[in-house]
Amino acid sequence: MARYSKSAGRDVKRAMRRRKKGSLKSGKGGKGGTVKSRKQAIAIGLSEARKKGKKVPKRKSSKKKSAKKKSSQRRTSKRKSRR
Q1: Number of C-alpha atoms within 13 angstroms, CB side, residue 76?
Q2: Cα angle vertex 61, ends 60, 67, to 5°?
Q3: What pLDDT digit, counting tens, does each position of 56-79 carry?
C-alpha cells in the first residue's frame, strides 16, 4: 500500500519547480522570503497536498518536548507551593 498518492507527488514536484524558479515563498499567505532549501520546498508541497485532501501521512509531532515541558512545569509549581 502506498503512503503517498500520485497527485501528492505531483504537488511536491510543482513546489520544487517553483523553488527553482524563485517564486516559492515561505510563511502564511506567501508573505515570507523565498525558499532556498530543498527540504523546505518538499514540506511546503506536502502541506499543500494535505490541504487539498490528498493521501499524505500526518505530520509527526514531537512528544519528547511536551513531556519535558510538563515535568518542568511540575517542578516550578512545587517550588511555588513550598514558599
Answers
A1: 6
A2: 145
A3: 988 887 666 556 666 777 777 666
The answer to whether the predicted template modeling score (pTM) of the entire model surpasses 0.70 is no
The cell for 27 is: 510563511
d(CA 53, CA 69): 32
| 47 and 8 Cβ atoms separated by less than 8 Å | no
* Domains in the chain, number: 1
- The answer to whether residue 80 is domain-embedded is no
Q: Say which amino acid occupies 60.
A: K
Q: Is residue 72 part of a domain?
A: no
Diameter over CA atoms, the chain: 60
Q: Output the nine-digit C-alpha cell for 5.
A: 498518492
Q: Which three cell numbers stand for residue 66?
A: 511536551
